[in-house]
Amino acid sequence: MKFGKLDHIDHVDFTLPEDNEFFNVTPSDPVSMKIYTGATSWINPAWKGSLYSEKTKKSDFLRQYSSQFNSIELNGTHYRTPSDATIETWVNDSAEDFKFCPKILQAISHRHDMLTNKELVNNFIVQLSKLGDKLGQCFIQLPNYFKYSSLPYLEKYLAAWPEEMSLAVEVRDEELHQNRDHFHEYLELLSKYNASPCLTDVSGRRDLMHMANTNDKAFVRWVGNGLHKTDFERIKAWVTRFELWAEKGIKEVYFMLHEPENLKTPEIAEYLAGELENIQYIEHRGPRLIKEQPNLFSSL
């Protein structure tokens, strides 16, 4: 993710803000939470020797990826509607507890009226439904020119979106986030249709860390800086926040990890998994990377 990235981050305050006053979740007993973490793609030959074994074929990447991660930010669906054959492969090649988080088709999200082509919208929804139990939280990324005045178009879209398909919404307009009344109206709209506001943790747009939520699911897009020391500090802070959210009633968190060129995502995911490992009421699984084997004959 290049959006919001800075070349130099020494001056950035990565402190997690307190939860927003608009945190519409009902505490539950017993406390429990499921965390799904994912990268932005499973096709990465550079992961051979760390996440994948050296001899892994491209056709086996998803199998190995889903045995390590339990989710994926599915950006491919932003550009094309997946075919039946593609969906069948995804379902068959992924682990039983795996969740796909599809990004809404650009031809829908970036239209002035997001329901202009109803056949396109309906076909996209039908195809996503074929993921069955492996469909996680979908997310719609609205264009930079989506303003407060565009909320009526979003409402039409949310009203037409199937209630059984969990949806997160990412709005990037600065004014909408800075104007308290406008932002709360936006949150009220999401709450009305049981959609979640996406949180984006990136260096150059700290205003997107609004820390508001509208139901018992949360969708976070976390953007690292190549395993800079602050990446690890930020992950520890998020783990603390997850514990608080579990107590507040959040049941599922989709935490999508971005590192430059998707190269070091397995390493930060492994660190996250280690931090979550001993929290009994949080269910999660993450990668355990392949460690280089010592050369037993190196001293001979």
TrEMBL record:
- Source domain of life is Bacteria
The cross-references to InterPro entries, in alphabetical order and at most eight, read: DUF72, UPF0759_sf
Which Pfam families does the annotation name?
DUF72
Record's protein name: DUF72 domain-containing protein
Organism field: Portibacter lacus
